[in-house]
Amino acid sequence: MTKLKAILAAIGTFALLILGAFGLGSMRGREKAEAKSDKQRTDDNAAATKAAVERRVEVTKEASNVQQTVSHMPDDDVDRELRESWKRPGCR
Length: 92
Prior knowledge:
Largest sheet: none
Number of strands: 0
Region (Disordered): 29-92
Strand content: under 5%
Order of helices and strands: HH
Radius of gyration: 35 Å
Structural class: mainly alpha
């Protein structure tokens, strides 16, 4: 009977070791996945911020160009350009 108890105890211990190793591996895998996800999110945010800054710079340059062009045009030409190109939505 003691040999049977020893064998069952060894099998139980072995099963617990396997389950513990599986749990530890799962936990480490989850940590790696979370770290990878955090890095990806940070990279995505950085790319979005960079794109927004580039768009803002482009818009600012275009606005400056338009302002410079308008300041060099006679008033009549400015009025004509605005009448020709700017319309309210729904109007002809």
